[in-house]
Amino acid sequence: MSSENITSVARESRKHTAPRDFQAQANIGSFARYRKLYAESVNAPEKFWAEQAAEHLLWRSMWKKVLQWKAPHAKWFVGGKLNVAENCLDRHLGTPRENKAAIVFEGEPGDQRTLTYKQLHQEVCRCANALESLGLRKGDRVAIYMPMVPEAAVAMLACARIGAVHTVVFGGFSSEAIKDRINDCQAKAVITADGGWRRGKIVELKANVDRALEATPSVEHVIVLERTKNPVSMQTGRDVWWHDVVSRASHRHKAKAFDAETPLFILYTSGSTGKPKGVLHTSGGYLLGTTMTAKYVFDLKETDTYWCTADVGWITGHSYVVYGILSNGATSVVYEGAPNHPEPDRFWSIIDRHAVTIFYTAPTAIRAFMRWGDAYPKKHDLSSLRLLGSVGEPINPEAWMWYFKTIGGGRCPIVDTWWQTETGAIMISPLPGAIPQKPGSATLPFFGVVPKVVDDQGKEVPKNSGGKLVITRPWPAMLRTLWGDDDRYTRQYWSDYPGIYFTGDGCRRDSDSYFWIVGRIDDVLNVSGHRIGTAEVESALVSHPSVAEAAAVGRPDELKGQALVVFVTLKNGVETSEALKETLRQHVAREIGALARPDSIRFAAALPKTRSGKIMRRLLKEIAAGGAVKGDTTTLEDFSVVASLQSEG
Ligand code: WTA
């Protein structure tokens, strides 16, 4: 957590209020209205959430108790029953929405498809029937490893419909990562595709699944969607084609009602130890959180064409491509491929051709667009846009201003949304018609969210000084536990400050009480908006026969936010070489996925350690950033190690 970061954002004092006509039509159109609702949500939370749950969701039976809280375990809407897929689909049937586009899809090669609510409902029913005919039941885990195509959403919703628990594995992850996730949650089935398109090439998803499944005894069935038509091997008795089992199944399926606390999905995310954490979300609270935030943060209207560029492999894709958007009956744009294929104007071309009104993307993408140049957005008519969003990492004020002017034409509010895989839904963000925005700040908390910035003792720090961001009360969309490891859940999030959720982020509040997130303070990096645990990268490296020890740290990077730098000591007798560096980079990509491929590898004779043998990452960070080693080095065991690392530059 560098103090430069804090002071550089502190200089930013511009305040942007949404234009009058935006405010006039907004779902929440004034600061006074936000304040009133926020006060209600924290003064009488159970009353507030009960009213919201009744207004926003379709329940088969009502709950008996709004919240049962025995820290760190929450149960929301205890005794209530609902079906998440029914909330996203069936309840729009028989209304004017039934023939409205639910998903507008564009494949990377340029193919397009629109699924109305009625059509999406039928597809989900077919898939639900297919899953049941393969023997999948409530509580079974299903891994989904798909390209960004409508069938990814269909698969998720079909699991929800039958009460199965999905775990979506990002299509950029390697077979090792798939294997670990499947084994951790003991998935019985995998839904995948022959491939997906990325920068004109085929990503061989099925081949990756095949490698993973060599060591996943729990998997009984694999459903394979034909997307790219490249040859794949199909194992008799295990593998079936989507067009054989899903497309031929009945389009009618009666949805059962499930308890509000029925597990909906597990999503693995990086923590500060090697093993990814299986964040568990359940049904009623999660759906309420995503539905309400989608409606109020994105100011969703019946006429909107909404596009979130996140992959369904991330929480953003779960909450704001699928669940929160469809439960509101809005139109969700799904794009399969890369932003610069065939040209760096692909996103602007999509916005222009589909008349997208709300656009939600990540700062790392915005910085890439800035670098590619204004000529690309200028080639297209972006006047359909009325609201912009940002997520994944702090957005630097320069990128914010560029986004505001060049993409939003100076007329679109920007919602800088802070949240996490664990929080399920947006926690701190402007409500665009109500809360004035300051470039770089996520501004103020959503209803019912009570965040604080505290010191190590848990005491709130004064305005404008940095501290740790915590959430002091349970909220409906919060994670319930870590799959199979409730102790780790308690340790990781609830033990720094008993009974209070610790986010792992550093933060400060300004004189208007706005929140300014300054980044992670644990050993988790944010590379291009993706969380990567340093320990994961290190354990991948030491699994290579040449490596004795490794330490991964982040270096500030203009484009990616943070670049991944690893320091490696080799086993005795192994020679350093450029070729070995490349081999190790490839090795990490194979073990985890290309997103974790180190940007630079530095060989070291030894790593700086404390006398108790702990690697001093703070020093490595300073060395990686190219600066002098500052601060306390008295605990360092051997200073010559640092001196030699610096001289090797
Ligand atoms: C960071 C993504 C600043 C933060 C939804 C958080 C942000 C982590 C913002 C969660 C934002 C996300 N401003 N930082 N608007 N949004 N972050 O689990 O460090 O992939 O803890 O969830 O991303 O990443 P995750």
Report on the architecture of this protein.
32% of the residues lie in helices and 23% in strands. It has 649 residues and is an alpha/beta fold. α12 (315-327) links the parallel β16 and β17. The chain has 3 domains: 3-83 and 267-516, 3-Layer(aba) Sandwich (Rossmann fold); 113-256, Rossmann fold (3-Layer(aba) Sandwich); 527-648, ANL, C-terminal domain (GMP Synthetase, Chain A, domain 3). The protein has 21 helices and 30 strands. α3 (31-43) crosses α4 (45-56) and α14 (363-372) packs across α16. The protein has a 7-stranded mixed sheet, sandwiched between helices. Bound molecules: 5'-O-[(S)-ethoxy(hydroxy)phosphoryl]adenosine (WTA).
Rg calc? 24 Å
In total, the number of domains comes to 3
Question: What's the total helix number?
Answer: 21
Which fold name fills CATH's third level, the topology of the largest domain?
Rossmann fold
Average pLDDT over all residues: 94
* SS elements, strand count: 30
| Biggest β-sheet: strands ordered side by side in the sheet | 5-4-17-16-18-19-20
Descriptive labels:
seven-stranded mixed sheet; 30 strands; 649 residues; binds 5'-O-[(S)-ethoxy(hydroxy)phosphoryl]adenosine; globular; single chain; GMP Synthetase, Chain A, domain 3; Rossmann fold; 32% helix
Give a brief description:
The chain is of the alpha/beta class.
Topology:
Elements: H1 3-10, H2 20-25, H3 31-43, H4 45-56, E1 65-70, E2 73-78, E3 81-82, H5 84-88, E4 101-106, E5 112-116, H6 117-133, E6 141-145, H7 150-162, E7 165-168, H8 175-185, E8 189-193, E9 196-198, E10 201-203, H9 205-212, E11 221-225, E12 239-241, H10 242-245, E13 258-259, E14 263-269, E15 277-282, H11 284-297, E16 305-308, H12 315-327, E17 331-335, H13 346-354, E18 358-361, H14 363-372, H15 375-378, E19 387-391, H16 397-407, E20 414-417, E21 451-454, E22 467-471, E23 481-482, H17 486-494, E24 501-509, E25 515-520, E26 524-527, E27 530-533, H18 534-542, E28 547-557, E29 561-570, H19 578-591, E30 600-603, H20 617-624, H21 639-648
Parallel strand pairs: 4-17, 6-7, 6-8, 8-11, 11-12, 16-17, 16-18, 18-19, 19-20, 29-30
Antiparallel strand pairs: 1-2, 3-13, 4-5, 9-10, 14-15, 15-23, 21-22, 22-24, 24-25, 26-27, 28-29
The structure holds 5'-O-[(S)-ethoxy(hydroxy)phosphoryl]adenosine.
5'-O-[(S)-ethoxy(hydroxy)phosphoryl]adenosine binds at residues 269, 314-316, 391-394, 416-421, 442, 503-505, 517, 519-520, 526, 531.
